[in-house]
């Protein structure tokens, strides 16, 4: 009974913190940027919708009872936290010189290093599959002007 109580307490604390952060970020985006419409999305559209979804998920976790065998939330190891925070930066720094394909591959591959159970084969397969998926969606289906190959390859 006490393990369930501890898990429930941590669920409430983390969900509450996450809910407050989500609402604050969405509110900030809504008040400082143009929301736009569904047909012509403004810069605030994605952050506001994302924060609403995250707030809804936090509310679900907040009000769902913890299972009897639930373990309390644990903080990720520092190595994993640093790697996950670094991945968007890797993508941002790699997109111009290397292009979409390599930037996605690098950021996904490095993110796989955050897990101690992911094998090299799994990391390579996941990176390749996700890179191809992003190229298909963003380059071919959405016709975004993100170059597949960056300035290192095209000059």
TrEMBL record:
Q: What is this protein called?
A: Tripartite tricarboxylate transporter TctB family protein
Q: Does the keyword Transmembrane apply?
A: yes
How far does the signal peptide extend, from start to end residue? Answer: none
According to the entry, every stretch annotated as the DUF1468 domain falls at 13-147
Q: Does the keyword Translocase apply?
A: no
Tell me the organism's taxonomic lineage: Bacteria, Pseudomonadati, Pseudomonadota, Alphaproteobacteria, Hyphomicrobiales
Q: Which organism is it from?
A: Martelella mediterranea DSM 17316
Keywords in alphabetical order = Membrane, Transmembrane, Transmembrane helix
Indicate the transmembrane segments per the record. 12-32, 44-68, 80-111, 123-142
* Top-rank lineage group of the source organism: Bacteria
A Pfam family this protein belongs to? TctB
